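Q: Predict the bound structure with glutamic acid.
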Amino acid sequence: MKRIVIKIGSSSLVKKGKLDEGRLDSLIKEIKMLRDNDIKSCIVTSGSIALGAYSIGVKPKDMKMKQACAAHGQAILMEGYMNASLKYGMKCAQILVNHDDFENRERMLNLENTLNTLLDNDIIPIINENDALAVEEIKVGDNDTLSALIAPMASADMLVLLSDIDGLFTDNPKTNKDAVLIKRVDKITDDIKAMAHPSSTEVGTGGMETKINAAIIATTSGVDMIIQNANDLEGLHKAFSDDYSGTLFVRNRSLNARDQWILFKTRPTGSIIVDEGCLKAILNRKSLLASGIVGVSGFIMDGDVVNIVYDGRVYAKGISNFADYDILKIKGHASKDIASILGHKAKGEVIHANDIALLEE
Ligand code: GLU
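A: Predicted complex:
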């Protein structure tokens, strides 16, 4: 039995402030067809704020009003999903999450258990950010990223981002008629990231940056990802064939859960800046030692996840054994001298090799 996570955005689901019931019906019909072909789906949906705002009759600007709109709109959204699922003889369930639900281990395990119990029991999980209670600091922020975090937790083989564009283009297709659709991406290089640059591709590929970010998370976590036009819902069941529409990003790594957590589910508040020799050691899966540290920035407590930076670029993230003020004292020194510098017993490595996750192999 295969599993697929399908993300659908507000612009594809909300028309003139109302739920596009025809579109939702086609989506659920397609999900039923996938189910009949032994593929179980999980949905990440947007739309709560847009639906709530229209129904209440406001244009929400401040956080409180957005939260109120989300609380109301989420109910409208779920009514639509419940009705459409019932029509096709299926059941669905609502899960609302925030960033904490991924960062905090206990909450993450709860989420994973609920998600998998629903899928095991043939109930479609319908997931959204818990916008009604969220403030900026605790949000994942966008549903592309949210769906990429969900996909490996649901043991999905594929993540499909349904959007109002056909896929990733070499340039903005609305302004450059020579722009071509990229069918397959095996490696997310700097060139690919540049294609999603918001300033160069404002109109046609708006939101492409978060989609590329989602592709990085999905493909390094062992999940393939497709960006596909939401107009082509019939194309969904072709996602597992060579006949797919849109852009396919092929999985290239299968990070374990701990490395996924370090890289994608934590928010480092500080960085350790290393020299070239230290970077080479880290890329060769060695520990980060005090002798290779040239600087620290931000705020670090022992046990915090930090960025590991060389020449202005983040190469890895890891769990620091020391706070920033101690790192400043021991940087550049040999490990054997750490205890005498700090005046107490301490670990030999600033970050142990097992606690380092590389952004790229
Ligand atoms: N969670 C938001 C909503 O349902 C949308 C976020 C997004 O589209 O990325 O309104």
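A: The chain has a mean pLDDT of 93.
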